[in-house]
Structures are given as structure tokens and as C-alpha cells.
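Case study 2.
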Amino acid sequence: MIGYLKGRVVHKDDWEVILECGGVGYELTATTMAIRNLPDTGGQGELFVHFSAGENGTSLFGFASLQERQLFRLLLSVSSVGPKGAIALLSSLGVDALIQNIATGNSIPLTKAKGVGKKIAERVVLELKERITDIWSVPTPASTPGAPAQTPANSAVRDALDALVQLGYRRPDAAEVLAAVPRYTELDSENLIREALRRLR
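Prediction:
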């Protein structure tokens, strides 16, 4: 498995990079930050790499840092988020803003990423909010100017998701059902669980 590449930049554009390493040219889809940090064509550059193998063949994705790659892999764990969507989210917001918005339950900025709609953005926040705060130290909303305050609705959604998981449902399935409940951010946890169970049966 390829985890890191260092070599001569043969080509780079808004989304793709070709690095020549040991006489072999590796083509990677990369984040905006990764491409921005690379030198011009002919210079020596380096990227952290995620290797992906699927039905359509193998692909390489490039990142500016290990943290950026870690967040990319975390995004891939969300149902309906593929590599292109994860790259778009990282490129649109950057690591710090993406972590902050997910941790504070603010899905709106995520919809600015290419190909990421309201439902997918809400699902990312719903499925990753606790995992993000477990992995990274995130400033509280009170200490971050302009960040949205924690609302009872966010807490209710989190409690409902935990309850459904304890009942034996897979977390991605439970998160998807909760996100499909009409006006789910306005309901308390009891009503959320009731609506979700009705849809899961």
C-alpha cells in the first residue's frame, strides 16, 4: 500500500497531480491545500497518500498532511460520501473549518462543497460529530467567535442516535433514518426515536 510519495512534479492542475518517483509517474487526485503546497512543475514535492481499490480500478488521493488524510478517511466512513465528495469537502472548507463545523453541528457550510447537498451534509454532521470531538480537541462554541451555539435539538439528535445503536441498529442506518425525519432538528429525543423506529420497522 502506498502511504507517501516524494518526487518531481510533472503536472498539476486544480484537482490532479502527477509525481515522478523513481522513474514512475503517479497520478493523484488531491485536495486544494495539497496542490497549493506543491512547487511548480519540475520542483520536488511530497504528498501523503490514500490508496483506493474498487470495482472501477485503483486510485490514489493526495493530501498536504496526515491530519488531512485522516479526516478524508473519516469522511469515507459516512454513508453516501465517496472519495470525490470527501475531497470536495476538504478543498472547500479546509481541515480546521470542516472539523469545527462538524463538531458544532453546523451543516450549512458543508453544502458549499461541490456535489454535497443538504441531506449529505446533515448526515456527515450526524455521524461524525462525536467521533470528531473524540479525535481532535475542538474549541467550544462559546470560545469561537461566530460559531453556532449548541442547541437542545443537536443534543436530542445525538441522544436518539445513541439510543438506536443500543437497540441494535447500525449507526449509519440509524443516522440516515434520523436525517430523513421531517424537521428532525426541532424534535426532542423521545419523538425522534419514535419516528425513527417507525421507519426502521
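Residues 118-135 form the longest helix (18 residues).
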